[in-house]
Specification:
The chain is mainly alpha-helical. It has one domain: Membrane associated eicosanoid/glutathione metabolism-like domain (Four Helix Bundle (Hemerythrin (Met), subunit A)). The chain is 83% helix and 0% strand.
Length: 133
């Protein structure tokens, strides 16, 4: 069975990961720093924007994929996936442009990401409960 809805979101987040990775590499080359960061806030923000995506995107995508495979309505999976992707985009943009400080986009990105993961968790629990409960 295929998971086309989750597949699209995985592709978009994969592209975002490459963009954020290139941003980190730019700083690594500039400062000749193979590991860790300097005291440059832009470098630190780039590393954390990348790291934060790596921390949140996998669990969100796994949950969406399981929901889609379990037969949760694709509309629910789609909207949770949109919240996840938009949340990750906003967070990265806010982290980089806010140089690691509080930024409206960063805050909204975190909230959307958490809501997406919560929605996916509820969808999964509801699906399992309605089938086996």
């Amino acid at each position: 069975m295929i998971v086309p809805v989750t597949g699209v979101f995985a592709a978009v987040l994969g592209i975002l990961l490459l963009v954020l990775s290139a941003h980190v590499v730019k700083f690594r080359l500039k400062y000749n720093k193979g590991m860790g960061v300097t005291d440059n806030p832009d470098f630190e923000a780039a590393v954390r924007a990348h790291g934060n995506l790596v921390e949140y995107a996998p669990i969100g995508l796994i949950m969406l994929g399981i929901a889609e495979l379990n037969g949760v309505a694709s509309g629910f999976v789609y909207w949770a996936g949109m919240a996840l992707v938009v949340g990750r985009l906003l967070h990265a943009w806010g982290m980089i442009n806010g140089r690691g400080n509080t930024h409206k986009a960063r805050v909204l990105g975190v909230v959307l990401t958490w809501l997406a993961i919560l929605a996916a968790a509820i969808m999964l629990l509801w699906n399992v409960w309605s089938v086996y409960g």
